[in-house]
Design goal:
Layout lengths: L19 H14 L3 H15 L12
């Protein structure tokens, strides 16, 4: 998993304000996992996006 590319394609900068404790936790997770903070954020957002497809107005198809 550590050698997987999470930020594929064209990149764009996102400047946001979030809870200071979350920023500290991201730094700790990055140091302990060897993953970049950016990769951890992308992983979390992709998981959130897949769990909330309705926010994207996407309806999953069932077989």
């Amino acid at each position: 998993m550590k050698n997987q590319k999470y930020n594929d394609g064209e990149l764009a900068k996102l400047d946001i304000m979030i809870d200071k404790k979350m920023v500290e936790n991201l730094s700790i997770m990055s140091k302990n996992s060897g993953l970049a903070v950016e990769d951890i954020v992308v992983i979390a957002l992709k998981r959130y996006e897949s769990s909330h497809a309705d926010y994207m107005r996407v309806v999953p198809e069932l077989d």
